[in-house]
Amino acid sequence: MELQKEVDELIKTLGGYWGPFEMLAALVEEVGELADVMLAVEGVKGSAKREELEEELGDVLFALSCIANYYGIDLEEALKKTVEKYRSRDLAD
């Protein structure tokens, strides 16, 4: 995935990857921020703009890309396998 390569180059420029559990903590933090913005966009808790939602989704993907890169996993391939899993499991009925 081309974007994974860009993330890899940036992380290496910034000094390298964090440890696995530090990266997991960063991902969880970003998902929490995404949840806050979604609540705001939906008017449940405050207000936010769609651009903020886009930014938080990008942050989650960045953190996820770091973990995938660390373990040598191609996110596009992983997603394709998951789509196929759901397609065969949920459309089989």
From TrEMBL:
Residue span(s) of domain NTP pyrophosphohydrolase MazG-like: 22-90
| UniProt xrefs under Gene3D superfamilies | MazG-like
Give the matching SUPFAM superfamilies: all-alpha NTP pyrophosphatases
Q: Which domain of life is it from?
A: Archaea
What is the designated name of this protein? NTP pyrophosphohydrolase MazG-like domain-containing protein
Question: Which species does this protein come from?
Answer: Thermococcus gorgonarius
Classification from the root reads: Archaea, Methanobacteriati, Methanobacteriota, Thermococci, Thermococcales
